[in-house]
Structures are given as C-alpha cells and as structure tokens.
C-alpha cells in the first residue's frame, strides 16, 4: 500500500510522528510504503534523515505537477493539516487529481484555526488528533452520517527513542520544570500569578526552551519582582536527560491554545515527571486527574497541587510510576500505526474521487485565511465599525502558526491580508 503524506514541513510533533511511523512500518514490514512530500525546505534535517534512514521517501519542494504525479500513483493521500498557508494554497489549486484522501488535523479547532464543517465533510476520512476537537463549532455541526467518517487518532510518535523512566526517591525537595514554547500564545498569560501563589519561598520553575522567545515573560517577571521564581535553562538537545532530573511538570498553557496531542507533556509523563496542567480540553484528554497527574483551574489550585506533591512523597511517586506506564501504553507508536493502518485499509475499499476545496476556503489567499478564523473573523471582515477593535488573543500575533502575519508573509501581494496585518499590528 502506497501512502503519500503531504505536509508543510517536517518539524515538531508532526515530524516526530511521521518519522516514527515510517520506522514502525519498516521494522514490522506491514506493507505500507510511505512517501512524505514537504512543501517548505526543512530548517532541521533530523526527521527527514530519520525517514530516509528507515526506507521512507522524502520529496522536498515539489511543484504542483510533481505533487499531482505523486498523488495519482498513491493508494492513499494523507494531508497533515493545520491551516498552514502552503497547504491552503495547495487545496485551492483546483486541479487536484482523483484520489483517496485522508485529512489528519493537528489542531484542535476549538479556536482559530477552526475546522469548517464543510471541510470535514469532504475527504474519505477526517482524523482528529484529540477527542477534544469534537467540541469545536465545525464538528459539532456535523450530522450523524458525516460523523461516521470522522475519527480520533492521537498524533503521538511514541517513546521508543527515550530511556526508561528513572526510579525516583522522595529524599529531596522536588524540582519543578517546564519544557516547550516560551511565548504567551502557548503559555498561560497569567502564568506569573500561578507561580506567585505558591507559598514556599524556595519554589522555582526550571524553564527549558528557546531563550529568544522568553523576553516578554522575563520582563514581566522582573517588573513584578518574580524573576527569582523562574530559572531559564535555554534550549537543550537531550530533553530526556533533563526530564530525569525533574519531579513535577508545570504545564500551564493558554486556554486558547490550538494544540492537541502535546508531545512535550507526554514525553515528560513517559519519563515519570508528574504533570500539573490546566483544565483545558486538550490536556484533560491526556492527564487522568489524581491518577497520572493533577488538573487545576486557577492559581490557588496550582499552589495547592505543588504543595500536595511536595509534601506527599509517596503520592507523587505513585503518580510518577502510573503516568509513565499509562502514556507509554496509550500513546505508543504501535497504537498510532495500528489505528492509521485500520483507516487506510477501510478507505482502500472506497473508490478514488475528485475534490474541490474552493467552496470551503474561497479563491484568494485572504479568503483562505479568513475561512478558519471563526469567532475572530470580525477583526478581518473588512467592515470597520461593526465592533470596537481591541487587542485580541495572543495567538493572533504569532509570526507563524497560520496567523495573518504568516499568511501576509506568504502572499505579500494580497492587499486584504496586508491591510489586516497592519490593522492588527496597531493593536499589538
């Protein structure tokens, strides 16, 4: 069976899950031949090399005619979707060949980028990467017949590349850390309130991530006299080695984040680091409250969780063992591969057919962007005065991540995108 994956890039969680999927197919000889077509040149080659090392084929920067040939020769085409402008352009191309199409959404759709119901209806299968996406406006509007073609497959690449979780002891004060993106689009905008609520004066949050993105967080911490609560460790190549030293994983994300499988959280749990997470929909699908971690709803709840895990060593050690055991089983690459393969074999029984996504996403780059803005569409409606403009959620101001600035960078000649970016910038 020939499966063509089309993705904007092969970084982050998508890169890990696809590269491990190729490795799994090679080792198990499951009969699936994977080709990965990447629309953007890779910034890092880690996952590209991993795919090729395990017999997968990688095509970088293919033009439309080459993509057409790859799609025509594939049994299954799997689009790795998160509303990246390069993918939007591909879908609006208008000359897609007949094919068996699976769309795997790597965003929740709970907030922009949302998943239009008309988009979810089109492919042979529309796969979600978290059950929390069922709450998104677009999917909630599907009727029973359409919902039968929608399913959930967590986009986890498993943990075969990680060492076993260490055996921890309760003989020292626990260390609390965070690994991941360091801007407020990902982190909770009131993170410092959470850290300030912890009464223990010795409490510190060890922060691992790209230091270049931490400027606003560090400035805010300094202004509030909370700089001592953060210990910035910077980017680390060997995350597992750092996770071995941590006891508690404070993963306090922005309630409006668009993530789903949250691989940083799962890797921490796989290494036995007990998570404390917000009661956001995505995290609540990954952490079992009081079994594999703690779910909190505010600063006092976070402070109570830290105090509880610091005081009760036996409880923390129990959750550590249970967290590692649970995620290594539930989110293994075997589970991911088996579920995807089941969908491949089911779709293989259906005929190839044509697709026209223009009715979903529109004609111009501005249309494509606007199609997934959901409740924030009014900011880009072109009808000034409809509502009083104010500063929007942090995710609107990302340089990339399918923001208006990302689309404007890709399509600088589109005047509507230019005006929307300028207007939003004025409210930064």
Description:
Helices cover 38% and strands 14% of the residues. With 428 residues, it is α/β, with parallel strands linked by helices. The strands form two sheets. Strands 3-2-1-4-5-6-7 form a seven-stranded parallel β-sheet, with helices on both faces. Helix 8 links the parallel strand 8 (176-179) and strand 9. Helix 1 (12-28) packs parallel to helix 2 (46-53) and helix 11 (263-270) packs across helix 14 (313-330). The longest helix is centred in the last third of the chain and has 18 residues, at 313-330. It is globular. It starts with a strand and ends with a helix. It comes from Methylomarinum roseum. Its EC number is 2.4.-.-. GO terms for molecular function: glycosyltransferase activity.
Gross morphology is globular
| Strand line-up of the largest beta sheet | 3-2-1-4-5-6-7
Strands, count: 13
**Coarse structural class:** alpha/beta
Strand-helix topology:
Elements: E1 2-7, H1 12-28, E2 33-38, H2 46-53, E3 57-60, H3 64-73, E4 76-81, H4 85-91, E5 101-105, H5 117-120, E6 125-128, H6 137-140, H7 144-147, E7 150-152, E8 176-179, H8 191-197, E9 205-208, H9 215-223, E10 230-234, H10 239-243, E11 248-251, H11 263-270, E12 274-278, H12 281-284, E13 294-296, H13 299-311, H14 313-330, H15 333-347, H16 358-361, H17 365-370, H18 404-410, H19 415-425
Parallel strand pairs: 1-2, 1-4, 2-3, 4-5, 5-6, 6-7, 8-9, 8-11, 9-10, 11-12, 12-13
